[in-house]
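Protocol step 4 of 5: obtain the predicted structure for the target chain.
Materials: sequence only (see below). No template structures provided, no constraints applied. The aim of this step is simply to have a reference model before the mutagenesis design in step 5. Sequence pasted as it appears in the construct record:
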Amino acid sequence: MGEVEYADDEVKRVVIPYKPREPQLQIHEAMDKNRFVVVVAHRRMGKTVAALNALIKAAMENDKPNPRYAIISPTYSQSKRVAWDYLLEFVRPLDATANIAELRVDFFGRRIQLYGSDNPDSLRGQYFDAVVLDEIGDQNPKIWNEIIRPALADRKGSCLFIGTPKGNNHFKDLFDRAGKEEGWAALQFKASETKLIDLDELWSAQKEMGDDKYNQEFECSFSAAVEGSYYGKLLNEAEEKGRMCPIDRDDLCRTYVSWDLGIGDSTALWVAQLTGQEVRLLDYVENHGQGLDWYVNWLKDNKWHQAEQLLPHDVEVRELGTGKSRLEVLRESGLDVRVVPRLSVDDGIQAVRRLLPRCWFNIPQAKQGLDCLRNYRREYNEKQNVFFAKPLHDWASHGSDSFRYLAVGMEQENTWSKPITVKTSWIV
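Step 4 output (structure tokens):
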């Protein structure tokens, strides 16, 4: 697969135990011609194997000092489980030094390392010559824009995005972008077209998995609801009915801003306006590591500060350092704050399901929050092959929790859901 040069000008030919299938060969050809490649592929096509060998080849051909390469999965444990054994096998002919504690291999001054985007701080401050973002649909979209893209800049590095669809989210946006923009390439591999899996096996899988899951995993459908998703079907219906489109604000309407407050985690805000029975989601913002003043300034800059602010019950907890609650701090900033009722997560999810059929989403301003709602799903136990009753806590949680507080807060004011009180004392 490549050649290794020695100080005495001796050249050793290195053969990697990898013979690409036709779809894998198409991936390599696309990477040779484009800096950024987005690959949507069915399960068991061999996309991770192709990605690893692409990095090894690129590393061997790189004559820059200290080349660095990375494969980034949604979690660190997933990187170890899916890619580590493959990586060790393919670098074996290179006499690579393996460091299992850091999931990295070093050979001839080159390095390939595995990471998880669940620990984004481990990626900051580094440079990369090329990166593979594996199952990008399960990762926070900020990983690419805020961390990986800057890390590629000074070396003019490349990136390969691979995965199976997880609903109509940021992975779909990347795929659409790659099909139009210069320097990008988009590839899609459906099981019915690659013929890598027997037809009888595909029929059997579809029968066992159901149409939605099968179409997502094997036919690369972005429209299929994410498995375990709480709101996927409702959002698909909203999109089919044209309720995701540009929407003008109307300051004569009643306006709400819902908050999910984080200290170490992100804080997320939804902005909604109520017009008759329509709920228009006009804006969304999420940030990490910022104080309350940052969000107050964002509201004022966008003229949402006069809206009714809906916050969870923990806003009333006093901080030891100041002796003030965040509720008091926000009210001192001039905001009209209302604490929503404390309901169970299940009751809050049901409130969201009741609200969504009335919702319109302003695109593109609400797109990031919409991605959160699409990917909000039950936690999955891979060992027992079952879903837990509780939601998975990941990058989609904050936007979804904020929307849940919006639904609970708006439902509290809905007089149509309350019983009618009739005074009967005067009736004879």
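Step 4 remarks: The radius of gyration is 25 Å. Residues 2-8 have pLDDT under 50 and may be disordered.
Proceed to step 5.
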